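Quick one - inputs below.
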Amino acid sequence: MNLLIAILTLVLLLVVILVISAPLRPARRAGGIIRTGEQAAENRAELEAAREAKYREIRDAELDYRTGKLSDEDFAATDGALRAEAVEILDRLGARERES
Amino acid sequence: MAALGRACLLLALAVCVYGIGASIYGVRAGRPEFSESGRRSVYALAGILTVAFAVLEVAFLHNDFAFNTVADTSSRTTPTFYKAAAVWSSQEGSLLLWAWLLSLWSSLVLFLTRGRLREVAAYATAILLGFGGFFIALMVFYAQPFATTSPAPSEGVGLDPLLRFPTMMIHPPMLYSGYTLCTIPLAFGMGALLARRVDADWIRLTRRFAFAAWFFLGIGILLGARWSYSELGWGGYWGWDAVENASLMPWLTGTAFLHSLMIQEKRGMLKVWNVSLVLATGTLAIMGTFLVRSGVLNSIHAFGGATLGVPFVCLIGVLLAGSIYLVVSRRDMLRSEHRLDSLLSRESAFLANNLVLVALCFVIFWGTYFPLISQALTGKEASVGPPWFDRYTVPLALILVLLSGIGPAIAWRRATLANARRNFLAPLAAALMTLIVLLAVGVGEKPFAIGMFCCAAFVLGSISQEFFRGMRARGAMAGEAPPVALMALVRRNRRRYGGYVVHIGIAVLFVGVAASSSFQHASELGLSPGQSTRVGAYTVRYVRPTASVTPDYDSASTQGGRELSAVLRSEPGVTLAPDSARTGASLSLGAVLDVSKNGHHVTTLRPSEGYYDSGDPTQGSVGHFIGGQPVSHVALNAGVTRDVWSAIAPNIETPQLKRIIALGNKTLPFIRPGEGIVAIAVMAGAYIHNPPQAQFHFIVSPLVMWIWIGGLIVIGGAMIAIWPAPSAVRRRVAARSRARAAHGLVRA
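Output:
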């Protein structure tokens, strides 16, 4: 039993070391090129999340207007501002896609 | 196997230390491979603690009493169902559960956010591993779940009878899931401050975890209230107990955070609020764990003694100091991007809502920790009871419910007075009609209850109006029939309408609380068989006593069992119960009660009191069978309009019954427990034949069921709000086309 437990512990230790050390092994380290690529993907993901949030805001504003919470003037102003912000995000997304 | 468990804890501690170092080094030195290694440390930690937890579970299920924690909280006769749950009934096991759940949730959030917000995530990883390391260090140095005794005892003490209730299986894991999930937004919030990336991205990434924390804490709180009402013998669902309060406080600040994060996402406002609420929620979750684990406050929940107080105080001190430093030093970055456009806006309503929630939390915090502070300052212990809490929380709760009806009916940014009049007319009319009806039926003497009913009517009117108008608008735009339009409306706007359903649930829940608190009829008195009493509109008659004996051995195959069966055949009224309720009681004494109203039978109630084996030989060979803490098993008839609740405290201290126990102790040896339980059966027979007066507690409470119904509605609304919309799933996968805003939008 003690031998079994010792073996189990050793196996667990080896698995942990393998998992934790994987990014540090030379074959997986590719330096700046991958880092830049990953950074670009991160920025694109953040812009896409911001785009979805803006779409949601535009839908919320339209729903508020149609359920009588916003006057015509207030809706026009709010909707215009939100759409302008959305276009800005789309432009930035488009620019990033062209760069990649 | 205990050695494997101990090895797992040591390995886990080493992984935490390494992971903290690797994460911080990786982000400070610009070495992402080390940050990645730190992230993988969290995955490894989850794997190691899963093995450790499995080792302990197996020990419980296999009755391995060499493990001290198994011997202290389980026994061979504990049903398997409760053996599995007994793991977290002890201090040591609950610490392991906490650490394990933390590692699982941490792994999930880091997996889902991989490749995003690298600097923030690296700091968050270090903080989460710090929490993990703290709890693992407690288990290594203070409360060891894998401590053993040799030789192992042949039998364990058994599970606390108060915990033998089905919801106790799920209540602690729900609460602990809530507590551990609270640390996720805290870690990412601190990470955002450390990395100076305080825009809305970290909130977007961790929003679901904040919501999940709120969700699980809410379920845990609800289950705890249900357990208190159905199992404990005092007849209430909330007693402002220290541990109840400890779970409610982070839930309140978490609720405030879920509301105000919408404002930061939309308007870039309330950044200081949000980061402060996140840090407060996480810190309160740790403080809640401190209350339960350190034993510093008296509570029905607090298990075990002290020893953990000092480490927890140190951790809480570090959290508080670190949080304050980070918020103050980054305050320039936390300035709002916009200002409030109008006091008549949803932003203002949310801000008022936050103030009320934080005020509620502060009141509860003061009332909970005041005994500690008072003792520290004056040396005298002080206590704060329910009346104190009610005095301050009831008015705040009224305002909170009212605001939950105002917010949905008002627009973002700015609402005009004309719109406000239009949107609040119907809800106000509903509230007014409710008031008129209540006054007409003569319930005007309870102003706070009336106020709550009217506020709830306002909320229901406001939310119903939102659903109706939204359905109508959707139907007009899309040409859909009302039911289809309603489904489509909710599907396209899950967060909004899921939130509305939650508000309905809260209003319903508070109606139940107000009614059951304000219009309850209660009675505590002694009754003998044949006697009656009046409780509100109901008459309760004590028909006859009941008694059952539950031996913990096979009654057919032993000499003692056969003797017991023979004795019981001559004792009509005493049953040999197979413990189908799995209470573990050696003896149950109770009553049959007939409940009637206006001469018509309503229900029959059978409350009882269970007497448990203390395992203490000094109480005698017979006395120990019933020498443990007695537990009341309440009888409840629940209905839509009212609950009738009863509990009994039989008198087993009569001269006749004491004589039977004394004689048994004197003449029966310990080595033949079968004969001892026969003596208990004789005692039960004597109780039936000559029942002494028993003490009864009766309560008739209106609308209690609506508390649980309200809770279920809240859960349903939360599920709607958090469920990903189908279109969102598609956008995550695809999304490479460049769509202009005008074409990229779909109908609300």
